[in-house]
Amino acid sequence: MAADKSKTAPLVFRKHKKLVLASASPRRTQLLEQIGIVPNITKPANIDETPLKNETPRDYALRIAKEKAIAVHPEYKDHFILSADTVVACGRRILPKTETIEQAERCLKLLSGRRHHVYGGICVITDTGKIITRLCDTVVKFKNLTSKDINIYLQSGEWDGKAGGYAIQGLAASYISFLQGSYSNVVGLSLYDTIQILEGNDFFNLGQEL
């Protein structure tokens, strides 16, 4: 019997203009590749990410995403610039990107049994200098975490460098009882919102195949 070529044929994606991803996150690179977008350059932005006094998590996520893109733009004015920032928030409280096991433990205990918001700020600067920003809001709820749950997660090391002390694409997925909104936003970049911005601003050379 002849093989069904439709099941083995590679995906064909559209060509796109030159793109700089202003992020050091390998997760954002992987997410973009998932939808056929490969950044020409990855250039992390060196900015001060300290929250402003009385700044809300929503405003913070948008501001940091925009500042990242603006910081990188002068060097690549003929490229599209894409930047993002992910903020895990309990109420008005911005949770840290955890660097120590103690920080991670505090975050997990705070998130246990309650809903929280993951705000994803996205900024695109086009090759004509137009600046577009968008905010994605995903609601996530953790189950009531036992001491054993928390200890297992801390031992996994998945918390290291993660906003709010967890990575949804790993072990923490087994702790999440509810999610409303974009899953990819919690990973690091809302693919739906990103593609909507890019499609609406002449990023793709339509009708051409790779």
N/C terminus separation: 30 Å
Q: Overall 3D geometry?
A: elongated
CATH-derived architecture: Alpha-Beta Complex
Q: How many beta strands in the DSSP annotation?
A: 9
CATH fold topology: Maf protein
Quaternary organisation of the protein chains = single chain
Given helix and strand content, the structural type is alpha+beta
Describe what this molecule looks like in 3D.
This protein is an alpha+beta fold. It has one domain (15-203): Maf protein. Helices cover 30% and strands 26% of the residues. The protein is built from seven helices and nine strands; from the N terminus they run H-E-E-H-E-H-E-E-H-E-E-H-E-H-H-E. It has helices at 5-8, 26-34, 57-72, 101-111, 147-156, 183-187, 191-199; strands spanning 14-16, 19-21, 41-42, 80-90, 93-94, 115-125, 131-142, 176-180, 204-209. The strands form two sheets. Strands 2, 3, 4, 5, 6, 7 and 8 form a seven-stranded mixed sheet that branches. The chain has a two-stranded antiparallel sheet with strand order 1-9. Helix 2 (26-34) links the parallel strand 2 and strand 3 (41-42). The longest helix is centred in the N-terminal third of the chain and has 16 residues, at 57-72.
